[in-house]
User: What shape does this take?
Amino acid sequence: NKLFLPNEQLAASRTLNEAAAVSVATALERKPQWVSVNPIKVWRTSANVTAYRNLLVERDDGASKDAQLTYMIESKFPVTTAVWSGNKSMHFVCALTEDIGFEDFVEVRRRLDIIFPSADKKMKDPARLTRSPEGTNEKTNGVQELVILDRKVSPDRLASWLARYDDRIRLHDERLAKLAEEQAARNASGELSQAS
Assistant: This one.
């Protein structure tokens, strides 16, 4: 188990509707289809996340299993685990050695969305479910296969990897700022014309 500490709880379920927190030991016994990407307490909601340590990138864009894996390997994203969904997507998790807190989690997720534009945008949710190895995909009865199992990643190593994309992120942020300025100018000119 690379994602959770022995004393933590997580959601571990056979369906998307189950959301109660269970111990790591119980989760391992269940062989669930789904697990929460980060530890939780009581019930699976973003407000109940107890540590912001794991970052999920799910590709579900029609690319083959091999193409998705090759893309992530070539990006050099520091992957701790990769699980094939048994259908059409890979679930890549970067498990950090320590909690980075909510604010840093949000910023890293924002950057990952820019770096991986074809990734599922719902991955921003720190309590999001991810596929669990050895589960069975409910749509295809395909086995959810553990494809990569590597070590946890230090926040410094992740920061170094993210820094490779600083120019892309800066350009993205500048485009957004320009669009916001243009929209504000349009709104202001519309208000002026309505006032006269």
The helical segments are 24-30, 65-75, 101-115, 155-163, 166-195.
